[in-house]
Amino acid sequence: MALIDIKNLHASVNGNEILHGIDLKVNAGEVHAIMGPNGSGKSTLAGVISGRDAYEVTEGSITFNGKDLLDMEPEERACEGVFLAFQYPVEIPGVSNTYFLKAALNAVRKHRGEEELDAMDFLRLVREKVKLLGMDESLMNRSVNEGFSGGEKKRNEIFQMAVLDPKLAVLDETDSGLDIDALKIVANGVNALRGADRGIIVVTHYQRLLNYIVPDFVHVLANGRIVKSGGKELALELEEKGYSWIEEPVGAR
Amino acid sequence: MTTLEVSKDIELYQGEFSKLGATALDSGNADLGKVRQAAIARFGEIGFPTTRDEEWRFTNVSPIARTSFKLAGGDFNQVSSEMLKTAEIPGMKGPQAVFCNGHFVSELSSLGNLPKGVIVGSLAAAASHPAVRHHLAKHANFENHAFVALNTAFMQDGAFVYVPKGVVVEEPIHLLFVSTSPGETGMSHPRNLIVAESNSQVQILESYSGTEEDVYLTNVVTEVVAGDGAVVDHYKLQREGHKSYHIATIQVYQERSSNFSTQSISFGAAISRNDVNTILDGEGCVGTLNGIYMIGGSQLADNHTRIDHAKPNCESHELYKGILEDKSRGVFNGRIIVRQDAQKTNSKQTNKSLLLSDQALVNTNPQLEIFADDVKCTHGATIGQIDEEHIFYLRSRGISAAVARHLLVYAFANDIIRRIKIEPLRAELEMRVLKAQEIPTDFVFTEGA
Ligand SMILES: Nc1ncnc2c1ncn2[C@@H]1O[C@H](COP(=O)(O)OP(=O)(O)O)[C@@H](O)[C@H]1O
Ligand SMILES: [Mg+2]
């Protein structure tokens, strides 16, 4: 059984259809890259998976671990093991990073039937993951993302992922706004989380990140459709030729 | 018809005034008798404000004007130990002066170990003190404010805090006011004077609470004088009963290089009004006026502030926040005056309101009057609901929608609460908000600001 099975997914925003029938299967242990030009619907797909309510699914289905994902609230999806690393993480003044993450982790653990972590174990876990992402520990005592640089925000997303230990991670343009050093650190963090029980979907505009997070499969999204799928070499091809050769001619169906 | 009603109100207060006769304050300070006479006379001329009065446009005080209040006495036997306990702040171990209906109660106060020369206690008992003679009723102007006029007319007692030159009071002082007049519609007019002489430092909490079941009026005036280089951190916590009315004026006078801050925290009362005014009357002053209110039901909370930059090179900071549920209403009016002389003024005002229901309403009004040309003044106001993007972010990490909302309300409030420097007070308020938001209390997040 696939970890996530997306079938004929159509989704609209304010009545405008943006995804026109997406089919995608990701198995545990696989890393899939979704590439495509700006506006092709990558974030929309990520948003539909995570349960953003601006998007209306008009047709199709998503099965996650055998369950109907579209039937779940965003928090249920998270508890079931879906994680979205946001393209634009929000700043939340007045909510501390540490306590936010503790509340999240304990919600997820409770759902899994595990005991809540006590303060000591939580701190130990946080320390370990902070190190993995090369983050400044003082960031933990600040408000969620408040005053973080672009790179710190992206790292914080992967850090949260490392703590929450999801089954499926969707990384939306995690590479944007990162310099090469930060990119390597983030990629290392992601690679450390690759494993037989986890599926990862890396959404990106550029091939650059895929030098460091080498995908098993690459899909090209254009105008709300997957127009081409292949192995990691497809990413290199895209890097060379750009997206224009792949986009459908106007009027094609 | 309206005229008749108004004059009836006025007669009632004039009657109470004659019944009261001379007060302990007058006997210690003969001039005060005349001031009180002038104040009741002035009230007779202006009467209660109506919503046609610009300063009271959104706050209708006719429920107060219509009620026949009786002056409440200082019988502290009516203060149950339970009332006192809920009014205290656990962990605040410093000097505590207790007032029943505005009257000092030495039996319930604990004022041990004050630094030499520091006075905390009854204003009436200190009537002849030079600082009282010099400052009492010299700062809060009653000409155009009916409630200040009434307070001045009915001045009997309240708190007097005096900190001599250069003295630092380490422990925060708690001025604890309880209103109780069971079965009667009682009114009290506590009058407070805080004088911090040059280069002294003091932290003061004024707290107000009262019986939940009674209709009563607390009408308080606090005058604060911060001498050259003095640092005064003032807090006012209003947790009055939900049928009560709470009207307060805090009038501050700041001398050169003084630093005055106040945080006004309001939860209770059917109608509450805070006027916080400061005059920065020397170079290098800093004035900080913060406030937060959390109301619901049909409560009304009105905060009026007035910062008067009279001299150059001063700073003022202002942050007021409101959290409104149900049909509650909030008013914020922030007036900043920069006099012609007050060059290099730096002033920032922010007002943010969080509406948790469609029926809650806020009126916010910044008023900048700038007569100097080399100044930096900014102001901003936001009124809105919880940001859906914030909710989604928390939910996407597994936190339920309900908890996410609660967390975000808490965070909104905590932006003010975390600035409170009296640790036990900060903890108490944080707990209160957490409990109101049903958040586990191990969530406490105080990032000192
Ligand atoms: N909330 C929204 N409201 C209106 N249009 C949207 C919204 N989100 C996305 N779109 C539109 O959907 C299309 C795909 O956007 P998006 O999924 O963000 O693309 P990508 O992430 O690939 O750059 C774009 O045309 C965009 O304008
Ligand atoms: Mg995008």
List descriptors.
A: alpha/beta; six-stranded mixed β-sheet; 7 helices; 32% helix; B: 449 residues; alpha/beta; 10 helices; disordered N terminus; binds magnesium ion
Overall description:
The complex is a heterodimer of chains A (253) and B (449). Chain A has seven helices and twelve strands. Chain A is of the alpha/beta class and 253 residues long. Chain A has a six-stranded mixed sheet, with helices on both faces. Chain A starts with a strand and ends in a 12-residue tail after the last helix. In chain A, 44% of the residues are buried. Residues 249-253 of chain A have low confidence and may be disordered. Chain B is of the alpha/beta class and 449 residues long. Chain B has ten helices and 21 strands. In chain B, α3 (30-46) packs antiparallel against α7. In chain B, 52% of the residues are buried. Chain A binds chain B through residues 50-53, 73-75, 77-79, 83-84, 86, 89-90, 92-96, 99-101, 103-105, 107-108, 111, 119, 141-144, 160, 164, and chain B through 387, 389-390, 392-401, 403-404, 407-408, 410-415, 418, 442-443, 445, 447. The structure holds adenosine-5'-diphosphate and magnesium ion. The site of magnesium ion has 4 residues of chain A, from α1. Magnesium ion is lined by residues 42-43, 87, 173 of chain A.
How far from one another are the termini of chain A?
Answer: 30 Å
Number of strands of chain B: 21
The number of distinct helices of chain B, counting runs of at least 4 residues, comes to 10
Tell me, rounded to a whole number, the average pLDDT of chain B. Answer: 93
Largest sheet of chain A: 6 strands, mixed
Q: Biggest interface, and residues per chain?
A: A-B, 36 and 28 residues
Class inferred from helices and paired strands of chain B: alpha/beta
Provide the spatial order of strands within the biggest beta sheet of chain A: 6-9-10-3-11-12
User: Which term fits the overall shape of chain A?
Assistant: globular
Low-confidence stretches of chain A: 249-253
Helix content of chain B: 10-25%
Gyration radius of chain A, rounded: 18 Å
Q: What letter string, H or E per element, gives the SSE order of chain A? A: EEEHEEHEEHHEHEHEEEH
Beta-strand fraction estimate of chain B: 35-45%
**How does the major sheet of chain B shape up?**
11 strands, mixed
Q: What is the rounded Rg of chain B?
A: 21 Å
Q: Which residues of chain B form runs of ≥5 with pLDDT under 50?
A: 1-6
